[in-house]
Amino acid sequence: MKALVLGGGGREHALVRALSLDPGVTDLHCAPGNPGTSDLADNHVLNVLDGLAVTQLAARIGAELVVVGPEAPLVAGVADALRERGIPVFGPDKEAARLEGSKAFAKEVMEAAGVPTARARVCRTPAQAAEALDAFGPPYVVKDDGLAAGKGVVVTTDRAAAEEHARACGRVVIEEYLDGPEVSLFVLTDGVHSVPLLPAQDFKRARDGDEGPNTGGMGAYAPLPWAPPGLTDEVMASVVDPTIAEMARRGRRYQGLLYVGLALTERGPRVVEFNARFGDPETQVVLDRLATPIGALLQATDTGGLGGAGALEWRPGAAVTVVVAAENYPGDPVKGDVVSGLDRVAAMDGAYVLHAGTAWSGARDVVSAGGRVLSVVGTGDTLERARERAYEAVGRIELRGAFHRTDIAAAAAAGA
Ligand code: AMP
Ligand code: GLY
């Protein structure tokens, strides 16, 4: 199979790596990719939001699978353009991707499908926002209605800050605060049959102890030793199947990946958010654990063969990823600093580096080029061992001004 991955972050490096390990994948391309993907795939310069350009590249290389990594091309209709040309694509059509692209639309679908989620109101004016904040009380949860790369959400007990965020965003969703540990569940679906991957947990706040601003994600681990048995089955039955069926009922067949962000509250699992693509950095650990070759699975979400895919196989043990972020992330990150020590991680067993926001400098050095620079993965028989390896590898890397969280998977590894 010839495959093309769109995107250039840590998630895409993980996807390229997983496809490179699939014996059925003979030819691998990535656009735009990054210095990490260039070791495993042919990188192409491309505007991934341009459906025509993507389709032309896919046709030129004879792609039999185009994997869309990030949400922006999905919302821009790139999957639609590929499907129109008969090129198999992993990712939902534009209308279906609104499950991620509009929080208000996601709430409407959940309500129609009877899916458990936070009570919410869509607000367009400061007066409406103030009324909703009064109704739900603190802690306040205020979400920009559009795409904001995980950074459009403010959760705060500070009333003025909540009102200010609502004013700055314009149209917002204000909702009830959900209390409980968060779980990310990724589900492959062809619009009829759905297959869950391993539940994972990510760490959204910038600093240790869940302090600091929300980010795209500072680390992740899988599996979750503390997850209640039957969690995946319960979420498939109460959330995924009704949502996929509701989309089909609306004539918006949902194909690709449904990312279910959950809070495990005292009243049971509640949906925090849907995304229309693999989560970053949870993908880095979930795909590390997947033993079933991934190419045919991703392709089956488009061609409709997922029903016959059988149960997935998982490697025993655990994986932890720690994100190395650039100075000032999640604000405007400092870029262009040399990343060194990658060879020292390559010499380790049970740890490796996935590139996220990196670029080649003129001198062929790897330099920082984004907020999340690297996603360092450690694996092991136990979560504790995986964690040790991830942090040992992080310790071998040097990047001026960089920071990382030191508590990724710490509580879970300690059995808390
Ligand atoms: P979202 O982009 O909707 O996933 O929100 C980003 C993060 O904000 C989530 O991962 C949660 O940590 C937090 N969050 C969002 N909605 C809620 C909620 N209703 N209650 C508590 N925390 C929330
Ligand atoms: N890890 C959160 C996200 O991908 O949105």
What features would you describe in this structure?
The chain is globular and about 55 Å long. It is built from 14 helices and 22 strands. It folds into four domains: 89 residues, Rossmann fold, CATH 3.40.50.20; 57 residues, 2-Layer Sandwich (Dna Ligase, domain 1), CATH 3.30.1490; 130 residues, 2-Layer Sandwich (D-amino Acid Aminotransferase, Chain A, domain 1); 96 residues, Alpha-Beta Complex (Glycinamide Ribonucleotide Synthetase, Chain A, domain 4). It has a five-stranded parallel sheet, sandwiched between helices. Helix 1 packs parallel to helix 10 and helix 6 crosses helix 9. It is of the alpha+beta class and 416 residues long. The model has no long low-confidence stretch (mean pLDDT 96). The protein binds adenosine monophosphate and glycine.
Write a concise synopsis of the structure shown.
The chain is an alpha+beta fold. It is 31% helix and 26% strand. A hairpin with an 8-residue loop joins strand 7 (140-144) and strand 8.
The CATH class of the largest domain, by name, is Alpha Beta
Number of helices: 14
Oligomer: single chain
Distance from first to last alpha carbon:
43 Å
**Considering the protein shown, what is the CATH homologous superfamily of the largest domain?**
ATP-grasp fold, B domain
Bound ligands, named by name, code or SMILES:
adenosine monophosphate, glycine
- 3D shape: globular
Domain count: the total is 4
Supply Rg: 20 Å
Which blocks of ≥5 consecutive residues have pLDDT under 50? none
- CATH architecture designation of the largest domain: 2-Layer Sandwich
Q: The CATH topology of the largest domain is what?
A: D-amino Acid Aminotransferase, Chain A, domain 1
Structural class: alpha+beta
Strand order of the largest sheet: 3-2-1-4-5
Based on DSSP secondary structure assignment, what is the total number of beta strands? 22
Percentage of β-strand residues: 25-35%
